[in-house]
């Protein structure tokens, strides 16, 4: 009788599955707890005739061990499931942790925008070395041997030549070196912009830095005129600073362009009325430019009778400062996240 019951219970326990803590608790109450069936059967042992008691006792022990082993197994399975099942470890009622996204550096944002505007006008993008020969940074660009820009206070020289021929190595002071390299290896038409890092030996302050970025542009073809230069930069100014922007050209001087002009754009902070960004002139300077000097074309193996070209160059830091109203150049290199975070999603 008891043996029958034990057999039933054994097969019952062997077939049971337990998937949750609640089911596990029900299992424990039914088979293992002090009020469970196994205890009850043990208590009934005293009513079993003396001669059978030992055998029945052994059967009950088997049942008890089975129940306990199964309980351990179920318990372990549920514990390990709750380690990997996110619903069991993540408290879905907790408030959301804000998504901490990085942001592009403001100089990257502006460089990409400048590139995008010129690409739409048919310019491609060229790059060149930051460590450069004198020829590409100066001589080919029509800098006289004694031009002050070659002097130590402006240029970081890497090696200085002794002889007559200038073969110094230096850190480029502008990205115009890429213009020379491009003209040397490619026949016109050339229509390209050159973004990059440049170096000048200047004390670091709010308005000057020894490392900064430029984008230069070069267009060489038959019949390229000053009007093309003006139209190109006017279009750029409207795209970059807003449709109402106007530009003005002021005569200037660069060894590699003739004639040369400084490009100003109407101050987009005060719309030309006058504010401290434009120093109450209504205009801010954004670029140097000019028609490529025929000497430069000749130096690069391009026939200056057949071809003309224009070039321009602008500082990415300067444009970024104007666009975002930033008043200190040093902020760009300090990597203060409070500054950088302001450009999230820009
Ligand atoms: N290379 C000049 C500079 O660094 C900028 C410039 C480029 C001016 C092309 C005219 C034409 O200041």
TrEMBL record:
Listed InterPro entries: aa-tRNA-synth_II, aa-tRNA-synth_II/BPL/LPL, Phe-tRNA-synth_IIc_asu, Phe-tRNA_ligase_II_N, Phe_tRNA_ligase_alpha1_bac, Phenylalanyl-tRNA_Synthase, tRNA-bd_arm
GO terms (BP aspect): phenylalanyl-tRNA aminoacylation
UniProt superkingdom: Bacteria
Localization, UniProt: Cytoplasm
Residues that hold Mg(2+) according to the record: 258
EC number: 6.1.1.20
Cofactor: record remark: Binds 2 magnesium ions per tetramer.
Record keywords, A-Z: Aminoacyl-tRNA synthetase, ATP-binding, Cytoplasm, Ligase, Magnesium, Metal-binding, Nucleotide-binding, Protein biosynthesis
One GO CC annotation: cytoplasm
One Pfam family recorded for the sequence: Phe_tRNA-synt_N
Principal subcellular localization: cytoplasm
Keyword field contains Cell inner membrane: no
Start and end residues of each Aminoacyl-transfer RNA synthetases class-II family profile domain: 110-342
Catalytic activity: tRNA(Phe) + L-phenylalanine + ATP = L-phenylalanyl-tRNA(Phe) + AMP + diphosphate + H(+)
PANTHER family recorded: PHENYLALANINE--TRNA LIGASE, MITOCHONDRIAL, PHENYLALANYL-TRNA SYNTHETASE
NCBIfam families: pheS
Assembly with partners or alone: Tetramer of two alpha and two beta subunits.
The protein's name: Phenylalanine--tRNA ligase alpha subunit
Organism: Dyadobacter psychrophilus
């Amino acid at each position: 009788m008891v043996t029958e019951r034990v057999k039933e219970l054994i097969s019952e326990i062997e077939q049971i599955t337990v998937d949750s803590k609640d089911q596990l608790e029900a299992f424990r109450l039914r088979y293992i707890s002090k009020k469970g069936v196994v205890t009850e059967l043990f208590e009934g042992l005293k009513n079993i005739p003396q001669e059978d008691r030992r055998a029945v006792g052994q059967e009950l022990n088997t049942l008890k061990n089975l129940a306990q082993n199964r309980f351990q197994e179920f318990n372990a399975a549920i514990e390990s499931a709750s380690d990997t099942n996110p619903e069991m470890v993540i408290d879905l009622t907790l408030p959301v942790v804000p998504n901490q996204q990085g942001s592009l550096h403001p100089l990257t944002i502006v460089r990409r925008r400048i590139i995008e505007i010129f690409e739409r006008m048919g310019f491609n993008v060229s790059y060149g070395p930051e460590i450069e020969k004198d020829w590409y940074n100066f001589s080919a660009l029509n800098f006289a041997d004694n031009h002050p820009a070659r002097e130590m206070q402006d240029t970081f020289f890497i090696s200085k030549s002794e002889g007559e021929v200038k073969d110094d190595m230096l850190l480029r002071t502008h990205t115009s070196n890429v213009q020379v390299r491009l003209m040397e290896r490619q026949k016109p038409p050339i229509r390209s912009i050159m973004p990059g890092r440049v170096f000048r030996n200047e004390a670091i302050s709010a308005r000057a830095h020894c490392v900064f970025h430029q984008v230069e542009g070069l267009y060489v073809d038959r019949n390229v005129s000053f009007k093309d230069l003006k139209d190109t930069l006017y279009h750029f100014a409207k795209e970059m600073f807003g449709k109402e922007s106007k530009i003005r050209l002021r005569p200037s001087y660069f060894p590699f362009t003739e004639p040369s002009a400084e490009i100003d754009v109407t101050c987009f902070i005060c719309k030309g009325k006058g504010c401290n960004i434009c120093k109450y002139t209504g205009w801010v300077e954004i670029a140097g430019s000019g028609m490529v000097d025929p000497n430069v074309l000749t130096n690069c193996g391009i026939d200056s009778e057949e071809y003309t070209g224009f070039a321009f160059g602008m500082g990415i830091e300067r444009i970024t400062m104007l666009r975002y109203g930033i008043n200190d150049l040093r902020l760009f290199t300090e990597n203060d996240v409070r500054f950088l975070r302001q450009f999230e999603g820009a």
